[in-house]
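Data deposition worksheet. Section B asks for the primary sequence of the deposited chain exactly as it was used as input, without tags or linkers unless they were present during the calculation. Section C holds the resulting structure in token form. Section D is free text for depositor observations; keep each observation to a single sentence. Incomplete worksheets are returned to the depositor.
Section A, Depositor: J.P.
Section B:
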Amino acid sequence: MKKYTEIEDAPTLGLFHLTIDDAAELIVMDMWVGGDILIETPDDWDGDERDPIITRLLSGDVEKFKENLIASINKGMLNPSVTKRDFNDLLIPEETYLDNEDILDWLTERNYCVGDIWHDWISNQVAIVEHLIEEIIYAREIISSGKKIPSTFQYKLWTVEYDGEDLKEAKLCASAKLLATYKGVVIENQKLKEELKNNKPSQKPNKADRPLTTRQRKTFLIIIAALCSSAKIDPEARGASQRIKELTESLGVPVDDETIRTLLSEIPDALEARMK
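Section C:
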């Protein structure tokens, strides 16, 4: 795919938009991978769909689709989000942008359903959006704290030799990694702040959510004992927890056997403490 030449003119900085050149190339690549376009691949092809050999073999089909897209635009059947023409009123394919949804509608009208290559492209656009959101969170937090946004660094992920000119590159790599780590901490911190703000932990919890005091717990255990007595259930008898479990199930709010057994085991001590 070619780089955007006028990305500042494209809606949302070109996200989910394609130039005519890029759209034609993506359509053809998608069709080829899906088996709708056939080419004779060389014996030494390594399977990389971005191999220049494949691009060259598909170039004729790409040109045909460029012509089809331009023809549809000129007929008013496809509306670009950004239109650029030269002095001869000819569309400039590398600077005229089409919305992804409009291209999909155009393809659907021609009975074509996009496949893996197109879906991969959409996934990549989503990944870019997610990255931009992280960057916005970071920049917003830095600015709100009165600091300046640090310069970003390009860095390589492979091992760098620490001698001569490579030492400068190694330092740049280390600085970039440090900045990336710092940004990650800032972003995570801001996310936590927003979560805490949304959850409003400073508000007093509802009474039902507060933990029971020892006195309250013993009172509830005595109430349970009284209900067991009324239902002719001996809390200390074998099978008592199973009978109570069945009662909770009949209410539609089942409680597991182990939880019930634990509560029943605490009843004797609660009764003894209250009788003193």
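Section D:
The first helix runs from residue 20 to 33.
The first strand starts at residue 17 and ends at 19.
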